[in-house]
Amino acid sequence: MEDYTVTMKGQMDSTTERRLSAEQNWLEILDSNLQTLQNIWNEMGLPEYECKERLQNTVKQINNLLSDMIAEEESYMHLATSKIEYYKTEVNALEEKLNLQEENEGDFLGLVVEEHYYRQRLKQLREEEKRRKILYSDLIENLQILYTRLGEDFSSISSNFDLSTEHLDALSAQLKRKRELCKSRSAMLKMNMAEIKSMVEEMHYTTKSSFKNSLIMGEDITQNCSLQFLKSVQSFHDELKHEYVKFIEQRKLICEEKMAQLNQMWNCCKIASEQRQLFMTSIKDKYSEKALVQYNNEINNLEKFYESRKPVLQLYEEWENLWQMKINFEKRGLDAVRFCNRGGALLQEEKERKLIEHKLPKVFKKKTNIF
């Protein structure tokens, strides 16, 4: 404001000098023109009274013209004064509304300068008001969306219309906090829902609850970040987690039963240990749903294999049993204590040994013929 006044003061000093010079020239021109008229009237031979009358008329016309000009300029001055008052009122109101005061001493060196200053000041304030209104509207709109998502009351925020920088800064800070809260709750909801859907899919879970079904079938539920909704989802998650733990324990028991059955079938089908190991290493999680399917498939395949090879497998098993009995008899034959036994046990043992020696070649021959 001070720089502006100094600049305008310099311009006014220069203008004053030019005005004084123009007034002097104007008086000289007026006097010269009046003298010219007087000479014309004298040459025309007009009487003195008529020359005097004409001079008076000329002065009167000049006065009338000046009066009209004065009236016009006064109207301009009054207009400038009224504009200044209007601008001042608007400026004061906007400065108070925007909490944006500017000090000025009121030394404007004329109404024109003062009118120009307040007009420009009002223009600046209106532009600032427009900018703040846009910012305020944007902040309120985004806050309303976040408050709705968070399930919170927005009426206390929307009812306080204040364009001061302090209030706008407070709204901006509040918007940032609410966004962070929404982000945090959304992340928690996404994590819970990912686990819920995973457990539901694995357990083939079904429910009659419309709320739970809406959660399971919903694509994106993170738009609702209210605390009540978050607690409801968390409660369902905890409930499902409890059932899931029992489900996993039950499936583990079933898998262990299947593995025992599988070992039994491997033994029946005389599957080599390398092949068994290869199958087990192909299963990443031996208690998973996928593993259970693999166990059942392998058992079914082994049962089919056993049925298709049943005669030879039974002979092979019979031969193995006889061979094992033969080995056991041979081990006992090395024990001298057995000769001390009485009551015909040694005789019975010898009969059994001979029977085994008799059966072994026959079983082996049958097995060989089948192959």
TrEMBL record:
Pfam family, one: MAP65_ASE1
Coiled-coil positions: 52-104
GO cellular component, one term: cytoplasm
GO molecular function, one term: microtubule binding
Gene Ontology annotations of biological process type: mitotic spindle midzone assembly
PANTHER family according to UniProt: FASCETTO-RELATED, PROTEIN REGULATOR OF CYTOKINESIS 1 PRC1-RELATED
UniProt-recorded name of the protein: Protein regulator of cytokinesis 1
Organism from which the protein derives: Trichinella papuae
